[in-house]
Amino acid sequence: GFLNTSGPPTLPNYFYNTLKRIVQTRDTVILLNETVHHARVVRMNAEPAPTTIRKWMGDSVGRWDGDTLVVDTTNFTNKTRYNGSGEQLHVVERFTRVDPKTILYRFTVEDPATWDRSWTGEYPWRTTDEKLYEYACHEGNYSLGGMLRGARQKEVEDAAAKKTGKQ
Q1: Which end of the chain is more exposed for a tag (fewer CB within 10 A), N or C?
Q2: Which residues on adjacent β-strands are paired with residue 65?
Q3: How far apart are CA 155 and CA 149, in angstroms?
Q4: Distance between CA atoms of 38 and 140, rounded to whole angstroms?
Q5: Which helix (H) or strand (E) holds 72?
Q6: Per-residue confidence at 49, pLDDT binned at 50, 70, 90?
Q7: Are the C-beta atoms of residues 54 and 48 closer than 8 Å to each other?
Q8: Closest Cα partner for 47 from 61, 58, 30?
Q9: In sequence order, which residues have a C-beta less than 8 Å from that of residue 148 and are 6 or more positions away?
Q10: pLDDT for the residue 43
């Protein structure tokens, strides 16, 4: 996502396609981000992958701590570069339902090669009835003008055919 909206950590944005969906199965939790439709797969109660296996969004392993979902993510690539971080990036996220319509999202970030100490942030995720849309670019929008001109031309032709009875 843009500006690290997919995470980890998942940071807020205020432009568009800002919704998230959480899907839980017996063995996984999926964190789907509307922007660029990234889906993070959190393996529940699993062992971390070997350090030789590195992923763009890291290797996320989850567990429940009471009513809080704790997601521990390591094994980032050196291309992730979250705020200048490297392969030692380690993110712990905590998702806690604080009321029927709010999840408090809290994260702690550390990378001893980048920062001299870990740091933490948090913000609320509120429920919504809005629909989650597929995020997609539309060919740079250069084709939109042609599509609209074609549709208007067809409307003119249809109206002319209707007048002459040649439909």
Answers
A1: C
A2: 68
A3: 10
A4: 20
A5: strand 68-74
A6: very high
A7: no
A8: 61
A9: none
A10: 97
Residue type, 83: N
| Alpha carbon distance 156, 59 (integer Å) | 56
pTM here? 0.78
Note whether 80 and 90 are within 8 A (CB).
no
Taking all residues of the chain, what is their mean pLDDT, rounded to a whole number? 87
Please give the structure tokens belonging to residue 141.
Answer: 């929008």
| Residue labelled with tokens 């009471």 | 66
Instruction: Indicate the SS3 state at residue 46.
Output: coil
11 and 4 in contact (C-beta within 8 Å)? yes
Percent of the chain with pLDDT over 70: 88
- Residues 6+ positions from 88 with CB-CB distance below 8 Å: 111, 112, 113, 114
Euclidean distance between CA atoms 160 and 163, whole angstroms: 5
